[in-house]
Amino acid sequence: MGITYLEGSVTGPTGTRTVRFLVDSGASYTLLPYRDWQAIGLKPKREMSFTFADGATIQRGISECHITLPQGEGHTPVILGEPGDEALLGAVTLEILGLVLNPFTRTLQPMRMMLA
Predict the structure, then answer these.
(1) How far is CA 106 from CA 24, 32, 77, in A?
(2) What DSSP assignment string belongs to 59-82?
(3) pTM, whole model, 2 decimals?
(4) Which domains does the chain have, with CATH numbers?
(5) How far apart are CA 32 and CA 85, in angstroms?
(6) What is the pLDDT of residues 63-79, one digit of tens each?
């Protein structure tokens, strides 16, 4: 499986910052590195536990910001990373923006909407 990176910008109460995200459709939430969420003035609104594949569990703060990607923009929840955490673009943000990761071309594409 290939690795896909995408540059976008995030906006919070005190500014905007450009971030290089690893697109990880297997991750639920988008993660902002410590230096980025601090720079745009985000504050934790709640805490969540996350479990890794090896069973290890961590706690991280959750906040919200506006995200702009070449394929679209919107408001999304984000994990507030700690020093050493890397930027991830997760499935919740992709779904909010109506995007899916095409694993063959490693590009984001509009989600096909189906009405029942």
Answers:
(1) 11, 21, 23
(2) EEEEEEEEEEETTEEEEEEEEEPP
(3) 0.89
(4) 5-110 (2.40.70.10)
(5) 8
(6) 999 999 999 999 999 99
